[in-house]
Amino acid sequence: MVENGHHPCARLDRVVHHRYGVCVKSTGPRRRLDSPQTPRTPRKGKRVASKQRSLNLRVTPAIVGLVAVASAGVGTVAVGGVADSGALSSNSYQTLSQNYVGGMELGGTNAVDISRDFDRQLIQEQSDRQAEQIELARQQVEQAVESYTEEVANQWVVPVAGYRLTARFGQSSGLWSSGRHTGLDFAGPSGSTIVSVAAGTVKSAGYEGAYGNKTVIVLEDGTEIWYAHQSRISVSEGDMVRPGDVIGYTGSTGNVTGPHLHLEVRPGGGDPVDPVAAFSNHNVSL
């Protein structure tokens, strides 16, 4: 409020009153602004330190509140002859921000230049490398499958379960027409399941003299496996079998002294060899 043409607050106080609506009264003496000021002349040889006039203010709750409000508003209030510089306006902040961003866009030292050509080249290189890795993995899988298929095809298994080896290969006895045993006997209960020891094709299946009911299976390498003295045959000529497929049952047909499976191994369909060694060559222990 203005009384008799004069503002109730001093000049500095009017700045605060204009901004915050209150007057801040100084407790120190005031100097007239219209009175002449005599500058001091420094003495020769000595430097006269300038005196700074301190301004004593009574700290009141109102002042504390004003300082808090001024700090929160990022404003600046000058006291003791310093003019009020005011807070940064939103327009000024926007201008500074635009200048800073503009400097980045105009090739400032902090700018990052991303080349789209480089990105395309990098993507192409990585895609080609990935395709090579996928192709290599596919080839490895195919090789593993092929190797596994060959391994399974050549895998041998024991022809019967619950057996006991009675007559071995090469034994001499008058029980055999040749004077020596040409195979390996797996003795066991009559009717026990007989399975193919390896993958192959049934060459013949039927009764054959001293061998009784006999089945001949030719393997992929030409080796023939003979299964004799069966009580019953469950495959026919031309059937393809895999390791573990049931081909018949143990019995006592032919020239025998008891139920058992007589098995012979004949490479290339020629002379018989020791079945124990043949099984061992295919990682099967008897």
UniProtKB/TrEMBL annotation:
Record InterPro entries: Cell_wall_metabolism_enzyme (IPR050570), Dup_hybrid_motif (IPR011055), M23ase_b-sheet_dom (IPR016047)
Region (Disordered): 26-52
A Pfam family recorded for this sequence: Peptidase_M23
Highest taxon, organism lineage: Bacteria
Keyword Nucleus among UniProt keywords: no
Keywords of this entry: Coiled coil
GO MF assignments: metalloendopeptidase activity
Stretches of the chain forming a coiled coil according to its record: 120-151
Annotated ranges, domain M23ase beta-sheet core: 180-275
Extent of Basic residues compositional bias: 41-50
The name this protein goes by in its record: M23 family metallopeptidase
Classification lineage: Bacteria, Bacillati, Actinomycetota, Actinomycetes, Propionibacteriales
